Amino acid sequence: MNKGILTVVSGFSGAGKGTLMKRLIEKYDNYALSISATTRQSRPREMHGKDYFFQSIEEFEQMIAEDQLIEHANYVGNYYGTPRAYVEEQLNTGKDVILEIELQGALKVKEKIPDTLLLFVTPPNAKNLMKRLTDRGTEGTAAIKARMKRAGEEAVYMDRYDYLVINDDLETCVEQIHQIIQDEHFKVFRNINFIEKIKDELKAF
Amino acid sequence: MNKGILTVVSGFSGAGKGTLMKRLIEKYDNYALSISATTRQSRPREMHGKDYFFQSIEEFEQMIAEDQLIEHANYVGNYYGTPRAYVEEQLNTGKDVILEIELQGALKVKEKIPDTLLLFVTPPNAKNLMKRLTDRGTEGTAAIKARMKRAGEEAVYMDRYDYLVINDDLETCVEQIHQIIQDEHFKVFRNINFIEKIKDELKAF
Fold it and tell me: Is A96 helix (H, G, I), strand (E, B) or coil?
């Protein structure tokens, strides 16, 4: 069995990444979502080992020291990171692992694990992003404006990704993401074993 | 409209490339097969501008001199080559152009046009290739043995390709080729216009 593909999905806040990933996992059983480690308090209904690996600051800092995290960051006083062990474990059983993380983390992962596939999810245009953020109805004008500004800053790094996926229609977009990841299995550098095998067989003639 | 994708399809003799391409073109209308120029005599029922562009040696050598061919080679005294104009014309109308050429030519095309997608079609194993060649019933044991030996020599260059497609079942293989080429449209470097546009839009916020 071939190893799974590690895919990092990033995109502007409000681009619909969460919904896309939920639908992708629901629809196909070859995917595993990476579970982040965090030092923040768990919220009601959040489960250790499902939503997050909840850890103490000491535990988390030990993981950093022992290079057990593919990437990590600190937001408003709490650590968040991607435990390498869980990702490796899933990849080795042939699962395609999805990491939904922001830009800085994504580029760090690509640096550490160069065969990572980087997907960037974007709405069809800025107006559509604005509408999505407004329709959520959870934030005021100032917060939305700040998110739009942040999107503009992040857009500068879009060309560091491998593929661009435009989230116009949910189902179409889920299919595109699925196809891109599945096609990745046919990349020559992921099929070195097959190539070596057929080379050996052909030598016999 | 985005430009089409230029795809070079190569593979061992007997891997079924011809049948695959025929089926692909039959099934989807976004493809154009590149038409080769040649100095060899036309055969009955071959049409100029459909099967080949038939040319005199003088015409062909002038095309070489004027860099009008993406690649060319000489087999048993006849020139064969890929006219750049026809390929560019099709790509500019948004067609995905397929070039079915052998390894040496494929690598030359990639050198001249770096965003070319290189696909290598292979049977699932050497035994299957042998069976395919035998089942065609057109060649004797010695000729088949020579093709198998040649396949062994070509296999060394498989890792220069982008994707490996295993031709086990025709329809499955056609779908894989189609998906790989269509996904290529989502590559970030092929969507620079979109990226620049959304960057500009976001600046307005």
Answer: strand
The neighbour count for residue B16, using CB atoms within 10 Å, is 19
Q: How many Å apart are CA A91 and CA B41, to the nearest integer?
A: 55
Tens-digit pLDDT profile for residues B103-145: 989 999 999 999 999 999 999 999 999 999 999 888 889 999 9
Domains of chain A: residue spans and CATH: 6-198 (3.40.50.300)
Residue among B155, B186, B189 minimizing CB distance to A176: B186
List, as own/partner pairs, every contact residues A54-58 make where C-beta atoms lie below 8 angstroms and the sequence separation is at least 24, other chains included.
A55/A79
Question: Helix H segments across chain A?
Answer: 17-27, 57-65, 84-92, 103-112, 126-136, 141-155, 170-184, 192-203
Q: Which of B125, B197, B205 should one mutate to test binding to chain A, selecting the residue with the greatest count of A CBs within 10 A?
A: B205
Tell me which DSSP letter residue A162 carries: S
CB of A186 within 8 Å of a chain B CB? The answer is yes
Q: CA B176 → CA A184, B3, B71, B163, B185, distances in Å?
A: 11, 21, 27, 10, 15
- Contact between A205 and B152 under an 8 Å Cβ cutoff? The reply is yes
Could B163 and A122 be called an inter-chain contact, meaning their C-beta atoms sit closer than 8 Å? no
Statement: residue A38 has pLDDT above 90: yes
**For residue B120, what is the nearest residue in chain A, using CA coordinates?**
A188
ipTM of the complex: 0.90
Q: Which long-range contacts (CB under 8 A, 24 or more apart) does A84-87 make?
A: A86/A34, A86/A35, A86/A53, A87/A6, A87/A34
Q: How far apart are CA B105 and CA B111, in angstroms?
A: 10
Taking the C-alpha atoms of residue A9 and residue A101, their distance in angstroms, rounded to an integer, is: 6
The string of pLDDT tens digits covering residues B4-30 is: 999 999 999 889 999 999 999 999 999
Whether A105 has a pLDDT exceeding 70, the answer reads yes
Determine the Cα–Cα distance for residues A40 and A28; give it in Å rounded to an integer: 31
Residues A99, A34 contacting (CB under 8 angstroms)? yes
pTM listed for this prediction:
0.92
Cα angle, residue B10 at apex, residues B6 and B13 outer, rounded to 5°: 155
How many angstroms separate the CA atoms of B3 and B95, rounded?
Answer: 7
Min Cα–Cα distance to chain A from B69, Å: 28
A197: tokens are 């095998």
